Amino acid sequence: MSLDQWIVNFANNYGVLVYLVILVWTFLEGETVVLVTGALISRGDVHLSVLLLAFAAFLGSFGGDQMWFYIGRKYGTPLLKRWPTMAGKVEWGFRLLRKQEDVFILSFRFIYGLRNISPFIIAMSGVSRVKFLVLNLIAAAVWANTFAWGGFYLGKALDCYLGESSQLVLGLIILVAVGSAAINWFRQRRRIVAAAVTASPEQNP
User: Fold this and answer.
1) Three-state SS across 140-186?
2) Which of 29, 89, 95, 128 has a Cα at 20 to 30 A from 42?
């Protein structure tokens, strides 16, 4: 079952509980589910509110990153030492943070591969709790509305220009998004492993 079909079935069977699912989903990741749900709302496939969709996505995104920030502040260094393959990604994040701290905090959600690790990096860098809370609040609101309303207007455009074919195109968009995410994940994984191997001292036999 495709993601859009799953959302339609869940919304039809459980109604507003779909907002809770989106909140939990975006607590970890989830721009795709927000985008697709927004498109389904605009097409009338689900009877939900795009405002409540954005609000649920905002709560999940904001809450998740606040939790990771506080975990990073207290346990960041020991946890990262247990995941040596993350060294390349962590160094990349620190470089971006050092270049422009405020911009990085406001934008890391939109950088694929850094969403979950960034609050750890920010917490370990010594950014104050208040500063992170304020900027995270703004960033989560922008992120949630970007994908909720972006999906809504995408659905409108597909219906307007493609009519009955819009469902197929929406499915293809989901497939491309998931496929691109998987390809990027494998590429980053290879870079991280390569960086870790290069950084480790050569062992003589």
Assistant:
1) HHHHHHHHHHHHHHHHHHHHHHHHHHHHHHHHHHHHHHHHHHHHHHH
2) 29
